[in-house]
Design goal:
single chain, 187 residues, alpha/beta, Rossmann fold, globular
Length: 187
């Protein structure tokens, strides 16, 4: 990801997604800032920037992925943007989603979409705090026969999640860090 794209993405997230205040995060932790990444990742400008930047980050990490995906709902737009950005490349990647719970009807799968057993996978995460969501998605992919190459986060909150994921044996990359975004947030 170019320095210019990183700055642009950090500015978009600061403008649209980051807020200061008192929040309880999905992890249960209390925080004085919150990043609702979907306000950026589901916008046309965000999708157009994130897809190619994330695809480049995957290439830079030398992750030769067949598919990308993560825990719904945060990972979904990022995964779709990556897949779309890869469509005109020599090696398109498929996007999938990991359900939080298996559905009670149909196939009952946790991993949905064109994921295939044997796929080399990059797990996608919107915001990494503790790493729990990324690790849950990785476990589901492995149980479905996939091989996890690494974890790619849109935002690393820099609160220990990266370290927890690395301690589980996975390589982690992020497009931006909280320290890139927070100085740009207007009160």
């Amino acid at each position: 990801m170019s320095a210019s794209d990183r700055r642009h993405l950090a500015a978009l997230l600061a403008e649209r997604s980051a807020k200061r205040g008192q929040f309880t995060l999905a992890s249960g932790r209390e925080s004085n800032f919150y990043v609702d990444a979907r306000l950026t990742t589901m916008s046309p400008e965000g999708l157009a920037l994130i897809g190619p930047a994330a695809l480049q980050a995957i290439a830079d990490a030398h992750w030769d992925a067949d598919s990308v995906g993560g825990l719904t709902l945060g990972a979904d737009p990022i995964s779709y943007a990556i897949s779309y950005a890869s469509a005109s490349t020599a090696h398109p990647v498929r996007a999938f989603t990991v359900r939080k719970e298996p559905k009670g009807h149909g196939t009952g799968k946790l991993v949905e979409g064109p994921f295939r057993s044997g796929d080399r996978v990059v797990i996608i995460e919107d915001v990494v705090t503790t790493g729990g969501s990324a690790l849950k998605a990785a476990a589901a992919v492995i149980a479905a026969g996939g091989r996890v190459l690494g974890i790619l986060a849109l935002v690393d909150r820099e609160e220990g999640g990266r370290e927890a994921i690395e301690a589980a044996g996975y390589s982690v990359r992020s497009l931006v860090r909280a320290s890139d975004v927070l100085p740009l947030v207007r009160d």
